[in-house]
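Hi U.,

Before I forget, here's the chain from the pilot set. I'm dumping it here mostly so it's searchable later in email.
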Amino acid sequence: MGKLNRPAWVEVDLRKLDSNIKIVLSRVAPGVKTLAVVKADAYGCGMKEVYKVMKENGIDDYGVATLQEAIDLREYCDPKDRIVIFSLIPEINVDDVCKYNAVTLIENLGYAKALSAEAQKQGITIEVMGCVDTGMGRIGYQWDDPACVEELFEASEYPNLEMIGIFSHLSSEDVEYKYWSDLQYERFRSVLAGLEAKGLTMPLNSLANSPATCHRPHLQFGLARPGGVFYGRYEGTCVAMPGVQNILSVKANITQLKDVPDNFSIGYERVGRTNRPSKIATLALGFADGLIRSWGNGNGHVIVNGHYAPTIGKMCMDQFMVDVTDVPDVKVGDEVIIIGESGNLHILPEEFAAKCNSATNELTCGLPVRLPYKYIR
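Structure:
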């Protein structure tokens, strides 16, 4: 990448991504396929660049959240790649589902009939997955509703539809106690048993998210679908994956330094206050760039020249300030790390989000809105 048009940017280390992928794939059981989740622009890391590295590692199945994401991915992915859309699609969009060869979820016969009719019209066979709610409470047939097995079996027999598996989502696999995931596993198996009793066996049943893929192979069934772990998420949690590294950093250059006296007010509502003569640095990014506003006013910190420096004052839409009084030799233009690492110092996305009572993915999914990206290869 050449000259940036602003002194703030995101860096994505594709070398770390490659390493992460190899570590995760080593945890996938023999005979199980891997679906890489690239929704939300690959969790804010950039779907197009991330896809290249995943493809180099032999991944052929990808998960997105919306039809538009599937359309975008189809523009550059291998035509033979399988793209699974994780949300429910309205019947009015079945023409594009078929046109772009996306795998969609079945949770009612009306949609299945419309998709079957469109597939016949276009002269193709389209893959589908049955959507089952085993305990997330979000989408899909309730696992114990008799219509679940009956209607999914019926849909599997519609012309030009190929039911490749059932799909459910674990709500609590990333916590220490797994009793709810274990219950979801049993419910998932119950639905499979009901379909198998009718003579329907499918190769790509899918339940395992990132933590399950990495730590509990019996939950993988035919199609494991790791997502956040590829990008280095869960580093600081009970489901941390040894060796996996955060691939995304947020950096900026200092745009102004200001020497101010004791009891000097900083930012909106003057809530930032110095308690000694201080040096204040301004950075040209803010909550409109995906950062979380409550990181400001001393709740968070940044890394400057190998030292931590606290935020001061409320974060603005496009700028925020940090107290660099204790940072030696600081000057305008110095690089500041908002998320990332420098030597033994680090600010993980998980740390940033936790300090703001938020989630890592909420933080990083907002970054691509305005910030330029650099990719390290």
